Automatic annotation (TrEMBL):
The entry's keywords: Calcium, Disulfide bond, Glycoprotein, Membrane, Repeat, Sushi, Transmembrane, Transmembrane helix
GO biological process: cell adhesion
Source species: Leptonychotes weddellii
Disulfide bridge positions per record: 125-152, 187-214
The encoding gene: LOC102731797
Membrane-crossing segments per the record: 232-253
PROSITE patterns reported for this sequence: SUSHI
Highest classification ranks of the organism: Eukaryota, Metazoa, Chordata, Craniata, Vertebrata
CDD domains registered for this protein in UniProt: CCP (cd00033)
Name of the protein described by the UniProt record: L-selectin-like
Superkingdom as given in the UniProt entry: Eukaryota
Amino acid sequence: MVQLGLNEMCYLLDIRLQIPVQNLEKQVNSRPRTQLQPPFSPFTPLLTVSKLLFLDALALQIFKDEEAELGFKPRHQVLFTLANAVSFVTAVIQCEPLETPDLGSMDCSHPLGNFSFISTCTFNCSEGTDLIGIEETTCGPFGNWSSQEPTCEMIQCEPLEAPDLGTMDCSHPLGNFSFTSMCTFNCSEETELIGERKTICGSSGIWSSPSPKCQKVDRSFSMIKKGDYNPVFIPVAVMVTAFAGLAFIIWLARRLKKGKESQESTNDPY
């Protein structure tokens, strides 16, 4: 049972529901001032309002056809008159219970009871997902939510393709080419990878690096670098280099010796 005092009821009836005072004064002037103690049928959930007092020259009449306007369900015509204390029982309007969305969370406040009049629920989605719908909804006086329950949708990255002359291997923990998906690239023989070998789909829907390319290798400059050569090549190259160096040394020595002999013959007069 929830106990509401004068201030709370005035807030609900006057501030939140915006009941015109002028209309109430007209009703007071046109009706006799009598005190009613209406017998209400018991049902749940219940809301008890005790010692509800109204100001001088002001009365409020609630009709069955206006019950939803207030967010409550009165069972009979009720008249509240000047300076009278009235106790009555009524049921709070209920909305359909809401559930937490997949891949998200829900936070609700229930001033008058779970998923009842003026209950408010706020929704959030986890990292790597988008909220589809309205973030907040409120239970209205007619038992309807102000907006439908939102959903959380996984963020997608642009689908990737294997590069020409290469292959691509991907893992998708949460869905094809979605948040946390990772792709690894490899190139075929006689080609080299230009770019990053791995890329990951981020929470904003963007890959960590662009797709790489496979480019053919120039064999004339990469034979030794890639290890694609005849095993006899190195010994032969060493021998050729050694013989060339030795021949140069012999030639240089002969030139020096010949020059020395020519100088000695010039200096000797006999």
